[in-house]
Design brief:
Number of strands: 9
Helix content: 25-40%
Number of helices: 8
Strand content: 15-25%
Distance between the termini: 21 Å
Order of helices and strands: EHEEHEHEHEHHEEEHH
Largest sheet: 6 strands, mixed
Length: about 270
């Protein structure tokens, strides 16, 4: 007789990317690789490819809350991962959902731009996220361009942005890779005042979905009970490997290979 065991379930509130590089597909694949179960709540539909985003549509409040209710009424949630919001109304919708899960590890990925640079919502959405959702998060994971938008420091360094943003959140991971340095520096700023820098070799090319991959992996590691600093290190290492092994199915950016080719083989 089969013995069934349950993997930790992670609530993913994200948009849909039709080419599968970012958004909910990235969440699902990354969480499978962490031996977690993704419970996806769709927040937005996008029209994008591996080059850039051309348009998006935000789902109605009732549809998003109904998806979340179906999940929360049915199973326990071990962590939350937040991705694309796209509107002020969606910030309020998601705030209502997250407040139903107090003390649940919550990774807030402030998705403000697509990998190709196209906007996925006005800056005002980022400011609303900063004021309403970041204070609820266990950790916030912007890249440096997103951190500059949220901190309202267009030329700010990671340290300067962190000083501004830690007024709004407990822990902050600002990812690098958007400059020209040979080594990428990812900086973790913790609520206890400590900071940690994780470095990795810069890989050639541009990647579509790396931020989603990192945030969902981090949510999975926290769902498994890993402590924050260790979970960040695990998530960064895994994400780097997915970029190292990335594939190029389209004419634009590479897509991270989140599930190894031999993953399902005995």
């Amino acid at each position: 007789m089969n013995t069934y065991t349950s993997r930790p379930s992670v609530l993913c509130l994200s948009g849909h990317d039709p080419v599968g590089g970012a958004g909910l597909q990235a969440d699902i694949e990354a969480l499978i690789a962490q031996q977690c179960h993704a419970t996806p709540v769709l927040t937005a539909l996008t029209i994008q490819d591996t080059v850039d985003v051309s348009d998006f549509q935000i789902l109605e409040h009732e549809w998003v809350t109904a998806q979340a209710k179906a999940i929360l009424d049915d199973m326990p949630i071990s962590a939350i991962k937040l991705g694309m919001l796209g509107s002020l109304a969606m910030v309020d919708t998601v705030e209502q959902i997250i407040k139903q899960l107090p003390d649940t590890p919550f990774v807030c990925d402030p998705v403000l731009r697509a990998g190709g640079g196209g906007a996925l919502g006005k800056d005002e959405v980022g400011y609303a996220l900063r004021n309403k959702l970041m204070p609820l998060a266990t950790i916030v994971t912007p890249n440096l361009p997103e951190a500059r938008i949220l901190a309202e420091l267009p030329e700010g360094t990671a340290d300067e942005c962190a000083t501004a943003l830690l007024k709004h959140c407990q822990n902050l991971l600002i990812t690098g890779g958007h400059g020209t340095e040979h080594e990428v520096h990812n900086r973790l700023y913790c609520a206890d005042g400590s900071s940690h820098t994780f470095t990795c070799a810069r890989l050639p090319g541009e990647y579509h979905g790396s931020g989603c991959t990192l945030a969902s992996t981090l949510a999975g590691r926290l769902a498994l009970g890993e402590d924050l600093v260790s979970a960040v290190k695990s998530a960064l290492n895994y994400t780097w490997r997915t970029l190292r092994d990335a594939e190029a199915p389209g004419r634009g950016q590479y897509i991270p290979r989140r599930i190894p080719l031999d993953f399902c083989h005995p």
